[in-house]
Amino acid sequence: MARARPLRQEVAALPATGTFTCDAGTFTAPSYTGGSSVSSTANFGTASGNASMSFDASGAKIALTIDASAGGSTGKVAASTTMASAASSSITGGYLSNGTGAQLMLGDGGAGRYLLIAAYRAQLANGANYQGVATFRCS
Predict the structure, then answer these.
(1) Within 10 Å of residue 98's Cβ, how many Cβ atoms?
(2) How far apart are CA 18 and CA 33, in angstroms?
(3) pTM for this one?
(4) 3-state class of 34 per DSSP?
(5) Is the distance from CB of 57 to CB of 86 less than 8 angstroms?
(6) What are φ and ψ of residue 8, in 5° steps?
(7) Residues 119, 103: contact at Cβ < 8 Å?
């Protein structure tokens, strides 16, 4: 029986230099987690975004923007951080306190590519909170 490949492969080491271009990303439908009341038709929304990644002596420099919308309201998650090592993750903004922010991780995308995985939480203009996951392939 073939062994399933893990969803996220560990990154062995970060490159010393380089700039990588990330694709348009793949997004789960962000789900309502609280805040102001929304109709049942707005329990899930849509998301899109972009990311960039570069490397230098300080590690991986990540910039990320995610736009979330649901029920006619929108919100944005913006993150800019440096991850010092391949085993690092980074938490930005109010991610841990039910505010707008993200937890960012790197994965091995194979053939010299990297995966940027972002668990994010966005507060929309109407006060409703949504969370989701985004994955970007960067090469």
Answers:
(1) 14
(2) 38
(3) 0.88
(4) strand
(5) no
(6) -125, 115
(7) yes
The 10 Å CB-count burial string (b at 16+, else e) for 110-128 is eeeebbbbbbbbbbbebeb
Give the Cα separation of 35 and 41 in Å (integer): 16
Q: Is the distance from CB of 39 to CB of 32 less than 8 angstroms?
A: no
Task: State how beta strands 113-123 and 101-110 pair.
Answer: antiparallel
Picking from 91, 83, 47, 90, the residue whose alpha carbon sits closest to that of residue 65 is 47
Other CB atoms within a 10 A radius of the CB of residue 131 amount to: 19
Closest CA to 68 of 133, 24, 135: 133
Count H helices, E strands: the chain? 0, 10
Query: Which of 35, 92, 39, 38 is closest to 66 using CA atoms?
Result: 92
The pLDDT tens digits of the residues spanning 78-95 come to 999 999 988 889 999 999
Segment 56-83 shows an average pLDDT of 96
Is residue 29 within 8 A of residue 45, CB to CB? The reply is yes
Is 35 in contact with 99 (CB distance < 8 Å)? no
| Alpha-carbon distances, residue 5 vs 10, 25, 88, 122, 134 (angstroms) | 12, 20, 21, 31, 19
